Amino acid sequence: MHRYLVLFTVAAALLGGAAATSTRSLQAPPLPSSKAVPGAFVWHDLVTDNPAASRAFYGALFGWTFEQGEGIDPGYTIASHDGRQIAGIVPFRRREGEAAVAQWVSYVVVANVDQATETFRRSGGRVFRGPLNARKDLRVAVVADAQGAALGLANRGPLLEDEHPPALNRWLWMEYVARDTDAALKFYGDVIGYRHEVQKERNDFTYYLLTADRPRAGLFRSPWDRETSAWLPYVRVADPAAMAARAVELGGSVVLQPRPDVRNGSLAIVLDPTGAPVALQRFPFETGATP
Q1: What is the DSSP string of 12-37?
Q2: Which has the minimum average pLDDT: 42-51, 143-152, 156-165?
């Protein structure tokens, strides 16, 4: 799978212009249903060839703690925040001559992992792993759609009682940067059951909400020509500018600095030291708003 990871990092650079047009997409949604419904993002795995650097970075930036996980991957690490498990780190070995590239793979609940995986395959996507049982009652797969966007599939997840909005330094939102919006909207409607609605239009830009029991992600067409689409995860922070500066101190880099014309300066996008992109979002958006 690691050869494909480099495609994801390009997506972070695309959010600068697009995010400026979307200021309502992360509004606090209605109370969630009591179970993980298809379309809910329930887990995030960081695939990296340098788990030690990743642990140091996210531990210092977000206060995450880490412990050895149990499962099918030797060296798998579980990340927790205030005692709550929120993510994993999957080590991989890159081949000689390949650049060090990492990415977050986000897992979404589907009604049937095996059927959904086959749908990704038949539609021109790729299957990187699975379907398989990570545990007795947990069925998962890692795939990419026909536009190149990597995604994890799961029959359930641990975050069944998610907060709205989440606590600081936890996962807030997902966005899909599309090469072909019409194809993506139809595909994810068919395979996951997402409904979509236009949330914002300005000039030639349209921002869509992907909704299951409630809004679960955003989707928009990349404003630049690119070969692949990508999913980008968001973390809620109190001060995106300060967090971006801290990310640099910790060995990361900044793709998008907070700007007044982008969600009132409430968004930054950074790459961790191993190259994985993550968005840092203050919520609510208003300048000076307190979490």
Answers
A1: GGGHHHHHTT-SSTTS--PPPPSS--
A2: 156-165
